[in-house]
Amino acid sequence: MILEYGNAWYNLGVALTIQHTQEEAVALYQQQMERTSAYAWAWGILGNMFFDQEHFEQAAEFYQRQVEVIPNHETTWMSLGIVLAHQGKYPEAIEALRKQVGVKKDHEAAWHVLGQLLEANNTIPGAAEAYQKQIEVLPEHGQAWFDLADVLTHHYPFEAALSRYQQLIDHTAAHAWAWDFWGLAFEQQGHIEQALEAYHQQVSIEPKHPDAWAHLGDAYISLGMLKEAIDAYQLMRQPGKIWRWRLKKREIWIG
């Protein structure tokens, strides 16, 4: 029913708020719900409407009404958490996201938002755990691998961070690009030697991937190892002008 009539409820909410005050519009909307025996998800649709208008306080009110009636709803706790975060209510937002992943443990997006909120709140162990849970649900999600790598490399000793990341790669049978994100996280922090090790891991697993060799070459350049960089670029299996362009871009043009 929600898929078939959801747009109609949304449009009704928009029309009522245009023609009436917010209080009158909500009262009329509720009357329509009662006449049609609409389920509580209609409150969620009204919340979506206010969210789209960036009226976050009102959106939170209607998401709250929905979860009071359907506490095990698969998405509304996350919606509530997001609008609470927009209001700067981070502890309440985090609690809402925790309830969401409690209801639906394989909610990949909810784990991602929870990780972001915990990281913003400087709750680093919780953020790392949330990103790890997200990866376990959807190992193909590249941003999750980068977020986890970024948290681990910023806040944990190198050996401990590497061990945890390696275990997750082994557990999820992740592709070589997981090492690429590990390298990028280190490179952004200026830890080029550690990045170089990660890129070597990547090319050892996927030697035909041009981006792997490109990132390896870039890392060599950052270390002043021009010969090794050229060798890596040549293994990109791209025309010579491509790797020469990369050298020129870094102002190490060799003619």
Automatic annotation (TrEMBL):
Source organism, top-level taxon: Bacteria
The entry's keywords: Repeat, TPR repeat
PROSITE patterns tied to this protein: TPR
Lineage: Bacteria, Candidatus Moduliflexota, Candidatus Vecturitrichia, Candidatus Vecturitrichales, Candidatus Vecturitrichaceae
Per-repeat ranges for TPR: 40-73, 74-107, 108-141, 176-209
Native source species: Vecturithrix granuli
Protein name, per record: TPR repeat protein
Membrane-crossing segments per the record: none
Parts forming coiled coils: none
